[in-house]
Specification:
This protein has 302 residues and is an alpha/beta fold. β11, α8 and β12 form a beta-alpha-beta unit. Helices cover 44% and strands 20% of the residues.
Length: 302
């Protein structure tokens, strides 16, 4: 299994860099960042929270790291045109020497679309648009020339050069609904959702059925998941965190409990566990929490 860290971009850039450099030095496998312009006044913080932009952050990290993979969770197709995104992804893959994972999704956060005057279609239309976008991305990143005539995107003799170093550059799709999982089965190299084992298991079953219908081996699609994590022997504190962030997935308790959850994820075929840094503390306390997770949980699975 791989273990990666998700530094919030709602913290100053020097803090992001401190986490990323520490992760690279100490043996974490990857870095993931979210694609939002502001908080949602819910689980992702107040609307006014300063928020760094994801593609700029990943491009910078590509040149400031040398080992860890770099990925997006996930770039919204409502405001990321796939032709522009393909050129960005190819460039960042070169800058990183082939370490980018291109995570894309259908988009969901209403307030950022409303503030910026960006259309947020119905869920059905957003998934249709995502399907087209992934096809466009795949073609531009692998073919000499792309012709595409869809409802959402039209390309004529379109080129994207240079091609990424990775062939193919892995495309991850984030989502959990039945229709989204059919899209994953048809088009994705990797899949992501927030989960605990009990919520992941039924989604894995849906994905495997969708893969069977699509004629794909489900193990061709890497499974990634995340939950908020707090290592603590104080069970009152653990329960308080889980209740506070609900319904977002969270694990809190001693390392033995966290390792048990990871083991159950492993049984469900999870290839990569992603740890958001949102509740790991600040400064040195956050780095200490990262080290404790590595030393007391991750090493059990390597």
């Amino acid at each position: 299994m791989r273990f990666s860290i998700w530094p919030s971009l709602q913290q100053p850039w020097p803090d992001v860099l401190e986490i990323v450099h520490h992760a690279e030095r100490t043996g974490w496998d990857g870095i993931w960042v979210a694609d939002h312009f502001m908080g949602d006044d819910g689980g992702f913080g107040p609307v006014t929270t300063p928020t760094l932009e994801a593609t700029a952050a990943l491009a910078a990290l590509a040149g400031l790291t040398s080992r860890v993979s770099l990925g997006s969770l996930v770039l919204s197709q409502t405001y990321r045109h796939p032709a522009v995104l393909a050129n960005w992804a190819a460039t960042v893959d070169h800058v990183s020497h082939g370490r980018l994972i291109l995570g894309v999704g259908a988009g969901w956060q209403h307030n950022e679309h409303e503030q910026y005057g960006i259309s947020l279609p119905s869920p059905r239309d957003r998934i249709d648009r995502l399907c087209e976008a992934v096809q466009v991305l795949r073609s531009l990143l692998t073919q000499q020339s792309t012709e595409f005539d869809g409802r959402w995107f039209t390309l004529r003799s379109a080129v994207c050069e240079p091609k990424p170093l990775q062939q193919p550059l892995p495309i991850l799709i984030g989502g959990k609904g039945d229709r989204m999982l059919r899209v994953v089965a048809q088009l994705a190299d990797a899949w992501n959702m927030w989960s605990l084992p009990e919520t992941l298991a039924p989604r894995v079953a849906v994905l495997e059925r969708a893969c069977e219908q699509a004629g794909r081996d489900p193990r061709e699609i890497k499974r990634t998941t995340q939950a908020l994590v707090m290592i603590t022997d104080d069970m009152t504190k653990a329960r308080r965190l889980i209740e506070t962030v609900a319904p977002r997935a969270a694990i809190a308790g001693p390392t033995s409990h966290i390792a048990e959850v990871v083991s159950r994820w492993q049984e469900l075929g999870v290839d990569e566990v992603i740890v958001p840094d949102f509740v790991l503390g600040r400064g040195q306390a956050k780095l200490d929490a990262m080290d404790a997770y590595l030393e007391q949980v991750v090493l059990l699975f390597r």
